[in-house]
Amino acid sequence: MGRYILRRLLISIPTLLVISAVLFTILALAPGDPMSQFALNPEVPPEVRERVKASLGLDQPLHIRYAKWIGGIVTGDFGFSFATRGPVTDLIVQRLPNTLLVLGIAYTVSVLIAIPIGIISAVKRYSLFDYGATTLAFIGISVPTFFTGLLLIIIFAVKLKWFPFLYDSRVVVSDLNTLGQQIRQSIMPITVLTLFNAAQLTRYVRAEMLENLPQDYVRTARAKGLHERPVIARHVLRNSLIPVVTLIALGVPTIFTGAIITEQIFAIPGIGHLLVKSIFNTDTPVVLAITFLFAALVVFFNLVADVLYAVLDPRIRYS
Amino acid sequence: MATVTRPVATAPENVWATRPPRSLWGDAWRQFRRHRMAMAGLFVFLTLIVASLLGPYLYTVNPNKVDILVAFQGPSADHPFGTDDVGRDVLARALLGGRVSIAVGIAAMLVSIVVGAFIGAMSGYFGKADGPLMRLTDMFLALPPLPLLMLIIFLFRDPLRAALGPVAGIFILVVGVIGLLTWMPVARLVRAAFLTLKQRDFVTAARSVGVADRRLIFAHILPNALSPVLVAATLGVGAAIITESALSFLGLGFPPDEPTWGRLLFDAQSYIDFSPHLAIFPGLLIFLAVISINYIGDGLRDALDPRKTG
Question: Do B239 and B182 form a contact (C-beta atoms < 8 A)?
């Protein structure tokens, strides 16, 4: 097992290297010059422009820049932002808690909602509950998150005035009052992400349960006189959850991408918001760092999913 | 003896004469028609296509006519979807926007299917290419699609716009990039189908009479691998429509004068507190398009599943 994890880890290193090279090349070959703000400004003399370029390390050849960048990443140094002149790592660390708070709660809640609904839906197949749940789940995966977000704003912020319109990042939770404020402003973004993820997960759980319910081992369990409840909970559910757990792991990077849109709608100053802003500012180091982090998340959670699968399912041989 | 066997030989002929042979696609269509939601989805999606193609001819309100006096009006008999910040008719703009949104969805799906089917076919047919091509697929799967799309479109839209014109440039960019970042599942499906199909007798038979590789791949094996691809293609249209809308929603899609559904939503955001109809109608259209496509995909999956006979 240990060797399997180690080998998978070693395989992911070249993958990440290739991805980082691709990202770096796209940004380097792009016609959009990070110096364009300077280039457009006639007040800046050419020699100053060259000096700024040199101070940012942009006068060196591509492969040297790439090697330096990769060398920095290993030590957690993503370079300096063009916009703020501060280290990119600081910018990201500053934004990360906002993103993680919303994403973490949304993902946990969606798992807690999806598993029971998926189970009941499958056990009582073709019932009114199943019909309602599958229809809702189908709607859930078909409404784009940006539309759900706008709808929630229209209904709960504009019409009912229950929740604030936009997210105020200056709220520091110090007493009950600010805690309430924080909760109220987090509800809508969390709901948007939860609805989408719960819909998707419900469909997986239901499909897996339906796959397992007609199996021979279920009939055996029933035949030996077991009550329906332990048959479902201890036999069918445990087997159905194996692929579901890996799908939950694989879904983590996707929800980070989903955060880009949610953070944009509600103006939450998280990583996604920073990414969009940096793309529009041609702040190349920040964009590179965040895109690379997203790619690293995908690779990492693929690894987690594979390892989980191997741990949970003894039929999988990790040789 | 001949007189005894004769009626036996003619009987099936009569049966065949009265009932035309059932084809795979005929069976699939029969199965598909039973899926009520899929039929409803097909109807809604076709309606949306027809409406966006013919709508601007039937509903002749000029989508670009600015009339400040009627700005921000809610739905009325004159303007069924209301008017926007400068008094343009939202229905006319939504009909026009549907063309671009649906065209992007279908074109991006075609790119991803062609690329995916080609890579999957090569990978499944030629053992030597399998390893490297699957590594490539895995690598593409690790790329984060939305950030990368935003990045590429932001960086390359100006030169392409200059080279090909404002709409054509962005169209090719958006379609190409969405297609090139979403072909991986199709490649895997096609590869899996090729791996089993190339062992079949009809392939061996074709090979033994000297059919060349290229013909074997495209004329013999690929048509038999199409059913899973068809489902993936259908769902791909919906996914591409969402992606294009998301890009436009982030301000990275088509130029402002080209009202795609996502762009309309993006513009609506600023006025959402007093003109929610600006967001609701384009959003509903995206939702309708995507859910109808998803139901069609669902119906196709059931209809093409060989395990399910009916």
Answer: yes
Q: What pLDDT digit, counting tens, does each position of A165-217 carry? A: 777 777 777 777 778 877 888 888 888 889 888 998 999 999 888 888 888 89
Q: Which of B139, B146, B287 is nearest residue A19 as measured by Cβ atoms?
A: B139
Least confident of A51-65, A131-145, B21-35, B288-302: A51-65
Q: Residue B305: how many CB atoms within 10 A of its CB? A: 14
Nearest to A221 by CA among A235, A206, A240: A235
Contacts of B139 in chain A (CB under 8 A): 15, 18-19
**What are φ and ψ of residue B89, in 5° steps?**
-75, 125
Task: State the angle between helix axes of B226-249 and A145-152 in degrees (0 to 180), rounded to the nearest 10.
Answer: 40
**Dihedral pair phi/psi, residue B45, rounded to 5°:** -65, -45
Which tokens hold the place of A279? Answer: 């793309």
Q: Which residue in this structure is represented by tokens 């069924």?
A: B80
Nearest CA in chain B to A155: B276
pLDDT, tens digit, 9 for 90 and up, residues A251-273: 888 888 888 888 888 888 889 88
Q: Is the pTM of this model over 0.95?
A: no
Nearest CA in chain A to B150: A279
CA distance A178 to chain B (A): 25
Average pLDDT, consecutive stretches of 10 residues, N- to C-terminus, chain B (310 residues): 48 58 78 84 90 80 73 71 74 84 92 93 89 88 85 82 79 90 91 89 90 88 86 89 88 80 84 79 90 89 65
Dist. CA A192–CA A190, nearest whole Å: 5
Short-list B299, B226, B296, B224, CA closest to B31: B299
Token couple for A42: 């006639």
Mean pLDDT throughout A40-62?
Answer: 68
- B213 has a chain A CB within 8 A of its CB: no
Contact B119, B137 (CB under 8 A): yes
Token pair, residue B137, equals 């697929």
Q: Which of B50, B105, B94, B83 is nearest to B238 (CA)?
A: B105
Among B256, B215, B290, B241, residue whose Cα is nearest residue A141: B290
In chain A, what are the helix, strand and coil shares in percent, each to the nearest 5? 75, 0, 25
Asked whether the beta carbons of residue A298 and residue B139 sit closer than 8 angstroms, the reply is no
CB B135 within 8 A of CB A11: no
Chain B neighbors of A299, CB-CB under 8 A: 142
CA distance A224 to chain B (A): 30
- A101 to chain B, closest Cα gap in Å: 21
**ipTM, 2 decimals?**
0.82
Angle between helices A88-123 and A176-212 (to 10 degrees): 50
Question: Could you tell me if B162 lies within 8 Å of chain A, comparing CB atoms?
Answer: no
B68, B91, B142, B158, B277 from B62: Cα distances, Å: 14, 10, 45, 28, 19
pLDDT tens figures, A6-15: 888 888 888 8
